[in-house]
Design brief:
By secondary structure, the chain is α+β, with helices and mostly antiparallel strands. Helix content is about 35%, strand content about 15%. Bound molecules: dinuclear copper ion.
Length: about 375
């Protein structure tokens, strides 16, 4: 384990906010020490200085001191405000997702981490990322609560059943860093770990191209949508469209029956698949059956990914809400590595020709045949 941190016994600082977390932590220690030592010293000093010299002596009374009271109010106030501000700044940097970034899906499971990249690469208990790049993890779990924790990055986030949580980091040094599950999750909790490999951008690009196996999340999602789950029979557009329109909704407000609106984010799409009756889109009937129990968390992420791609969003973050459906947005453009990758992902018409052939599981007369618009 690397320990060339400027602090002994500490893991390496390998993300952009690692030093901030350490700085705040040492400030807290400094404040604690700066109070503890004088208080303990005063206990001993007063204990000796004012020890009982004669029985039942009447001490001299003291009737307040404005200066003393002001000083002992103001100093702790200032100190506690610096702690609050420091904590708020670190929290803001750590848990507010960046606009751009390479998106990776993480599914926790007793007792392993399943990871999928937007280019289709899958990993177990390993995560390869490029250096100096914002990486955003969209995480969920198949069973109990886990917690994705990388001490060298000084960040962690709970992974919670039934919802998506997010974690981001920007690794500053190539290397191999321990990954832990930091929430007790049963018998093999302690073994639920692995490594994050931070690679130079060129090395990462080589790793990526050498590891393309299987479908990308968007391709997998399209396959489920059009063939395996048959979503396309209602949602494919055209005269037979009975299900809500999905193109272009991601990142926008959707009008619901009853006049409310909801932001179409990952959580909304997930809920609409598992519990379609929860939010009925204006102009449609509540006729969709639930898919609860029929899709795994990984398939749900693939479906979310595909529906995002219908709005031109792929491999980007949810927080790019404002800019919305701008094609395969510029979100990846700052990063040549993922930029090349993203060309393989979002184009909605890609694979039209070979699709029927590539899915032996496609039911006969699958509805995708007539849908030239997708
Ligand atoms: Cu998963 Cu502890």
């Amino acid at each position: 384990m690397q320990t060339n941190s400027w602090v002994p016994f500490f893991p390496e600082q390998a993300s952009t906010f690692a030093w901030q977390v350490d700085a705040l932590y040492f400030y807290l220690i400094l404040v604690s020490v700066a109070f503890s030592i004088p208080i303990v010293a005063a206990i001993f000093y007063f204990g000796i200085r004012y020890r009982e010299k004669e029985k039942y002596a009447t001490p001299e009374e003291m009737h307040g001191s404005i200066v003393l009271e002001t000083v002992w109010s103001i100093i702790p106030f200032v100190i506690s405000m610096t702690i609050f501000l420091g904590g708020a700044i670190v929290f803001y940097n750590q848990y507010r997702l960046p606009e751009d970034g390479m998106e990776v899906y993480v599914v926790g499971k007793q007792w392993m981490w399943k990871i999928q990249h937007q280019g289709g690469q899958r990993e177990i208990n390993e995560l390869h990322v490029p250096v100096d790049t914002n990486v955003k993890l969209t995480m969920t779990t198949e069973d109990v609560i886990h917690d994705f924790s990388v001490p060298a990055f000084r960040t962690k986030t709970d992974v919670v059943p039934g919802r998506y949580t997010y974690l981001w980091f920007n690794a500053t040094k190539p290397g191999k860093y321990h990954l832990f599950c930091a929430e007790y999750c049963g018998l093999n909790h302690s073994g639920m770990g692995g490594y994050v490999y931070v690679m130079e951008k060129d090395d990462f690009a080589a790793w990526q191209s050498g590891n393309v196996s299987g479908q990308t999340p968007v391709e997998q999602g399209r396959d489920l949508f059009e063939n395996k789950l048959g979503c396309a029979s209602c949602h494919a557009g055209g005269p037979q469209q009975r299900g809500a329109k999905l193109e272009g909704i991601f990142g926008h407000e959707v009008k619901l029956v009853g006049g409310q609106t909801v932001a179409a984010d990952e959580a909304y799409i997930r809920e609409s698949i598992l519990n379609p009756g929860a939010k009925i889109v204006e102009g449609y009937q509540p006729i969709m059956p639930t898919f609860k129990g029929q899709v795994t968390e990984e398939q749900l992420l693939a479906l979310v990914s595909y529906i995002k791609s219908l709005s031109g969003v792929a491999g980007t973050t949810t927080s790019s809400t404002g800019s919305g459906a701008g094609g395969a947005t510029g979100a990846n453009s700052s990063n040549p590595v993922t930029a090349t990758n993203s060309t393989a992902v979002p184009t909605a018409n890609r694979g039209q020709a070979n699709r029927q052939g590539s899915n032996p599981n496609a039911p006969a007369g699958a509805p995708s045949g007539g849908n030239s618009n997708r």
